[in-house]
Amino acid sequence: MYYVRRDGRIKGPLSREKLRDLRRERRLRMSDEVAESRDGPWSRLRDVRHEVLGGAGSAEPTRAGNHDEILDVGDDAET
User: Which residues, in sequence order, are bridge partners of residue 33?
Assistant: First the structure.
């Protein structure tokens, strides 16, 4: 399970499959930070994408969706 942090907001826990879906839908940015614990350590998704998403081609964004959307999934975990 993973947590996603963007603009100080933390979402999760989220499964690897859910992260892949969010990436395909362009709701998860490569600049978002991910961690296995809500306390970190945090890494940018672009730096750990193969470990987190499972492979380069497994979560390529589709043309649908808006990559600027605020991540709005999972439970809020306030910081």
Answer: 5, 44
- List the structure tokens of 57: 């081609």
pLDDT one-digit tens code per residue, 28-66: 999 999 999 999 999 999 999 999 998 654 455 545 444
Query: What's this model's pTM, rounded to 2 decimal places?
Result: 0.72
> Which of 71, 59, 57 lies closest to 27, judged by CA?
71
The most distant pair of C-alpha atoms in the chain lies apart, rounded to whole Å, by 33
- What is the chain's Cα-based Rg? 11
Question: Which residues, in sequence order, are CB contacts of 74 under 8 Å at separation 6+?
Answer: 4, 11, 12, 13, 14, 18
